[in-house]
Amino acid sequence: MTRELTCKQISILLPVYNHVCISLVRELHQQAEACGVVHEIIVADDGSTDTTKIEANRDIGDIPCCTYIVRETNAGRAAIRNFLARSAVSEWLLFLDCDVDLPDADFIRRYVDAAGDDVIDGGVCTDRDTVRWQGNLRFAYERASEPRHVAIERAAMPYRCFRTTNFMVRRAVILAYPFDERFRFYGYEDVLFGKRLKEERCTIRHIDNPVVIGEMEPNGIFLEKTEEALRTLYMFRDELRGYSDLLDLAERLCRFIPGWLLHMFYSLVGPLLRRNLIGGHPNLTAFGLYRLGYYLSLTNKT
Fold it and tell me: What pLDDT is attached to residue 5?
C-alpha cells in the first residue's frame, strides 16, 4: 500500500499517565486547523494514580475536536495504544507520547504532506537547553544517541529503529497487526511491533519530523525504568533476538564466559556503577556497563 495521503484526515492519539498535556493538545489542534486537515484528538488516561492531573486534563474535552477518556485500570503501554486505535475514525492515526514538545509550527503539516507508506516515523530529539539538564542521565543518554535518530540513519535499519514516541500509521494496519498486549510493563513493545511490520511486509518510512523530549526523569527514576525495560527484554528475549544490540551482546558473552563469573563481576561492580548513575555526574560508559550487567544478572537467576 503506497498511495499518497490525499484524504487530509487524521486522528491524533495520546496515551497519558500521571501527566498534564493540555498545552500540547491545544498546539496540536491549532496546527491541524492551520493546515486545513480534518482531525480529531483523543487523549486516553491509562489509569493514572494522580487525581489532580486527571482533573487538570478534563479541560481537554472543551477544546474543539478533542476527546478526553479516563480509564480506571492501567492497561499498559501496548493495550492503551490499541484502545486508541479502535476508538479513532480516521484512515491515518498519529500517535504521540504525552510528555513531548512540538519542534515548530509545521509539525502537523509535514505529516499531512508525507508520502503514504503504511507507517511514517518522525523521530525524536532533545531539548537544546543543555544547562537545564546538566547532570541528568536520560538527557545525556538521549543527546549521545541523537545522531542515530536522524531519518537517514534510522532508514538504514527501518524496522529495528522504530519508536512509538512519534509516528503515523494507517488505521487498517494497526488494527490488523496491533501491539502485543503481553507487554504490560515498560519497554520494547515498539521493538516487537517493528519486527511484526517487517514480517508482514508493511512499508515504513523515516522522516525528519522529530518531537522534542521535553521531560527528563530524575536519575533514580530513569534507572528504575531502565531496569524494568531490561526485565521486559529478558522476558521476551526469544522474540526480540536480532532486534536488540544489548541482547545480542549478552548472549555472545554467555557462550564464552561462565555465568557465575559474570554474576560475580556484576555483584561487585554493579553497586558502584549505580552510585555513579544516580549521582550528579553520571557516566554513559558506566550506564552501558550497568545495563549489560543487570541483564546478565537476570540470566543467572534462571
Answer: 40
Cell numbers for 36, please give them: 486545513
Answer whether 82's CB lies under 8 Å from 1's CB: no
- pLDDT value at residue 2: 39
Which cell goes with 40? 480529531
- Rounded distance, CA 245 to CA 233, Å? 11
What pLDDT does residue 255 have?
83
pLDDT band at 103 (very low <50, low <70, confident <90, very high): very high
Q: What pLDDT was estimated at residue 240?
A: 93
Band (pLDDT 50/70/90 cuts) for residue 67 is very high
For 194-204, b where at least 16 C-beta lie within 10 A, e where not — what string?
bbbbeeeebbb
* Bridge partners of residue 16, in order along the sequence: 45
**Can you say how many angstroms the Cα of residue 169 is from the centroid of all Cα atoms in its chain?**
15
Average pLDDT, the chain: 91
Dump the DSSP string for 259-283: HHHHHHHHHHHHHHHHHHHTSSS--
**CB distance 97 to 61 below 8 Å:** no
Are the C-beta atoms of 14 and 21 separated by less than 8 Å? yes
Q: What is the C-alpha to C-alpha distance for residues 121 and 209, in angstroms, rounded to an integer?
A: 8
> Which amino acid is it at 139?
F
Grid cell locating 141:
543518554
Strands 124-126 and 211-213, sheet pairing: parallel
Q: How far, in Å, CA of 160 to CA of 137, rounded?
A: 24
